[in-house]
User: Fold these one by one.
Assistant:
Number 1:
Amino acid sequence: MLVPGNHHMVELLGQRDELLRLVESAFPVAIHVRGNEITVSGAEADAERVSRLFEEMVLLLERGHSLDVEGVGRTIDMMKRDERPSEVFTTEVLRGRKSVRPKTGGQKRYVDAIAANTVTFGIGPAGTGKSYLAVAAAVQALQAKTVNRIILTRPAVEAGERLGFLPGDILAKVDPYLRPLYDALHDMLDAEAVGRLMERGTIEVAPLAFMRGRTLNDSFIILDEAQNTTAEQMKMFLTRLGFGSRMVITGDVTQIDIAEGRNRSGLLGVRHVLEDIPGVAFVDLGSADVVRHRIVQDIVDAYERARP
């Protein structure tokens, strides 16, 4: 293939050809570079895949994306799963103080499902961006004025003895449980804006118990750590949905902390109950969607193999 522009060729190969070597180490092919021409030789299927990989990388460069070792590593992983990196990396969930985009094919399916459905379940291990992308979608909906407020909630699992020892009122006591949602908000909006929106009630952060008896209209509602809800709590939460609202429910079924564990979790049984309802989507994320340190993928896979 011919690469347009010398500047694209330099970015494509990387400093001291480090990106070229990364591609070579990932596929059983030989790659030859001469001027602006890249030739790939090897088994037909492998050579074709690597050629498409370079085409995808050029597309990313033409659309203003930079290439680095981490990004090219993810691009290689996607190509091996027959996904289109140029479609994944150019999908924008939130634009503004911080641009938020999916980094894996699974994450793109997740944000697409949130955009297309009224209720979306994001189920997967830690580090797959379940909560972060949901908060980004909520902030985008608020900025676009498709909703009037954001409601973030999660169960306070240790709502008994340990919680009682914490200082302050109930909101202060559950604050540690809600901290990951606060962190995502502050990553996308400046601290003063978050403070003003919370004072006005435009952003509400509350324990799950505070949802009982309410009808939530024109809201983007996120239930985090849903594996620690009971079936009764899950039903209570889902039936709070009002007109003009969307819900995202996130959880990791391998990290259930409530009493009786898997027999009590409201997240485990909900798919069987709701999967045939139009407007309800379930998206499963896996170790390939982990966007933390790459060793986290190996840790997730190791624990999955060790499960009885």
Number 2:
Amino acid sequence: MKMLIREFAKLTGVSIRTLHYYDEIGLLKPSIVDEQNGYRFYDEENLERMQEILFYRELDFPLKSIMSILSSPDYNKKSALKEQKNLLTLKKQRLERLISALDKAMKGEKIAMNIFDNSEFEKKREEYDKEAQEKWGNTAAYKESAEKTKSYSLEKWKDLNSGMDSLMAEFAQCKSNGLAPENAETQALVKKWQDFISANYYNCTKEILSGLGKMYTADERFKENINKHGEGTAEFMAAAIEIYCG
């Protein structure tokens, strides 16, 4: 399914201007941009990513935090959805309490002021990062990533996304040129990928890199994203990483 930007905007309830901005900062890029007329086209994968973005927006996550979460090399969609559901459930319960209190107030009944307390939701949201550490991998690496990226601007996240895309495209080119995963040029590219993660997120040891490589084919989100650069790129990249990590 391919949709023009106006169709995608209507379907998602997000303005065209916002979609242009998301494209600009690398948060949500269209699947295809017509080189002749500049028309942007969106597909099912774009729709899924927009759903993730909208869930986080509904939970009052800043745009910068959403960029950080979705751009993480070890982002796990299933774990994220579970956390989002937990937070939305808390938000729903609070809204139900407020609605009930309004009904009482309309009847002239007194209501307790503690119904406005939102601390449980806020506390749970603050614990999100800690829970993510346990679910998404190495705790030390996650802490390092959180500390390193906390000051990143949206422009910085845009540059990071562009850098990751460029490296993936290089892997695709290696495969297209007929190079094997164990080829010296391919292995040098794996080192370049490792260094990129270490420089921008956390110290990417061979142990961590090995785990990421496995995830690139096991997790459909990663696989589809990498294979945008060429069919089979995710498998090629994972094989090269496995060789590199021994």
